[in-house]
């Protein structure tokens, strides 16, 4: 951890790596959901269009801290080999609103997004009407970027995972993703979309604005987590899949504002049944229908970043206190 010129600690990506493992991030999200958090009341994200993409501001408040993520979303960066999302996170004291830390928001995002997805996938597997499931035999990931890699890594860190297949449009990037996962001890290989038909969990983490997965592409009763689409005009899931599935969202309010997967499925058709939110899922209030797929579709919410940041800062505080006593 370095210090900025104003004396505010700067938490780097390397600091985050040392302080917070993927399983710890998952538990930080789970604990926040079980703490009485009202996900429906979280602050709206603020988008400001730019010529190359969007500015994104994500403010949130917890009982102990306040914070805001300032991010840019540049879809064209994937063609340049650059990150689609770049960000910094600013943490403030809740009582005085004085700045407390600056955190690398790009690494934070690639840590917290799969952590939220992992909470959802774990809950949907546990709610399987055929009996609670505690492992993933076959995981298919559509996408080959940082989020695809980190989703496979996080799921493998909290559940036993068998075969992992990576599906993508660019062979070189898919091979690179597979190599990274293998270096992490994960049994990964390249595949085509047909692999999704045999998977019990499918993750879509793509930059596509049009559907990449539909009902005919998955096994009956499969769990699907769609996390790549941002905005009402972007969607990764086809209408047949969304309409057939038991749906879980982070919050109904944010899904109405931003989920293209849900908005696309309602155009020209009947309204969808009301989805469950993550609080309802982790508290066991979701009943999955026999034979129906389950879909978690996430857009990202500000409370998620703050929950993980607070976990990071607490670990770093404990480390600093330990150093002072030795």
UniProtKB/TrEMBL annotation:
<dbReference type="Pfam" id="PF02423">
    <property type="entry name" value="OCD_Mu_crystall"/>
</dbReference>
<dbReference type="InterPro" id="IPR003462">
    <property type="entry name" value="ODC_Mu_crystall"/>
</dbReference>
<dbReference type="GO" id="GO:0050241">
    <property type="term" value="F:pyrroline-2-carboxylate reductase activity"/>
</dbReference>
<protein>
    <submittedName>
        <fullName>1-piperideine-2-carboxylate/1-pyrroline-2-carboxylate reductase [NAD(P)H]</fullName>
        <ecNumber>1.5.1.1</ecNumber>
    </submittedName>
</protein>
<dbReference type="InterPro" id="IPR036291">
    <property type="entry name" value="NAD(P)-bd_dom_sf"/>
</dbReference>
<dbReference type="InterPro" id="IPR023401">
    <property type="entry name" value="ODC_N"/>
</dbReference>
<keyword id="KW-0560">Oxidoreductase</keyword>
